[in-house]
Amino acid sequence: MTRSLPFLLVFLLGWTQLCGAAFYGVVRNAAPVLNTPAFGDIFGRADGRSLKTDQCGQVRQLEFIALPGTVFRLREKIPLSGTTVYRVETDDYPSPDNIPLYVDGRFIELRDEQPPARIRTLPARERIIAALQESVGSPYVWGGNVRNGASALIGTFYPAGAALDERAKRRITLAGLDCSGLLYQATGGWTPRNTSHLVSYGTGVAVEGKNAQEIAARLQPLDLLVWNGHVIIVLDRNTVIESRLECGSLTHGGVVTTPLLQRLREIMRTRRPLDAWPAKGKRQGVFVVRRWFGI
């Protein structure tokens, strides 16, 4: 993902660097975190009802949705009409490729001293599996990791009393999940938010040189079939679950289940299994299996 504003535009927006003592912000309600400070260009826009998306129906400027209690370190601020946008850092989302992260100040409480980190509790395996199953049918949302969306967007960028049907409300509040967001939602924000970290999360399962049936025999519920860009979660001995982007379809994809052996064979048409994600060299056309629960 890319996408910071050119320096001149940032300057014109009124960039102000925070100096002196560190400042912090704590998320009140689920808060969208973008890779651009131009929140007003994405949400609401001229009619107060729109959402800026690409041809696949996705907000590519969305990095993730911060859960309540997430702590931000405020690095810079941009005063805008009616609000202040902050460039932030957080341990909950180590930014891939040093992409800048921004949050609208109306979603956070400012603190002078460092607050305690967001409380994280790993649910039981059965509860995680149930949460995954409950997500089946949820739409694919790039950067989405809250199945019911960021409801505070209504009243902040959209009129609270706007006549919107349920489908429109879910769309503008980013209700849905991407592939790693599906796992993040089910674990209550316990697992890493991006596949770039999931490829080395937990411990590797030895699958190199194995065929699909041999790999399937080694898998346990909640194991991850993962590469940098996508993750598939094992539900049980026979089924996997994932959130898939299907650009061009009516719904643009979403959370689906597939027979385990069928999905493995599909993957292995274009990718070969490795025991560990390569630190260097060829990373295209490969995948790994990571076991993380209970280790």
Kindly describe this structure.
With 295 residues, the protein is of the alpha+beta class. The protein has 2 domains: 1-191, no CATH class; 202-295, no CATH class. Helices cover 19% and strands 29% of the residues. The strands form 5 sheets. Strands 13, 14, 15, 16, 17, 18 and 19 form a 7-stranded mixed β-sheet that branches. α7 (212-218) packs across α8. The chain is globular and about 60 Å long.
Could you say how many structural domains there are in total? 2
Which consecutive residue ranges, at least 5 long each, have pLDDT under 50?
Answer: 1-15
In what range is the share of β-strand residues? 25-35%
- Shape by Cα distribution: globular
- Rg over CA atoms: 20 Å
Q: Cα distance, first to last residue? A: 31 Å
Beta strands, count: 19
Helix proportion of residues, in percent?
Answer: 10-25%
Largest sheet: 7 strands, mixed
What do the pLDDT scores average to? Answer: 91
Structural class of the helices, strands and pairings? alpha+beta
Return the string of H and E elements.
Answer: HEEEHEEEEEEEHEHEHHEHEEEEHEE
Query: Helix tally?
Result: 8
Quick rundown:
The protein is built from 8 helices and 19 strands. 19% of the residues lie in helices and 29% in strands. It folds into 2 domains: 1-191, no CATH class; 202-295, no CATH class.
Describe the structure using short key phrases.
single chain, 295 residues, seven-stranded mixed beta sheet, six-stranded antiparallel beta sheet, 19 strands
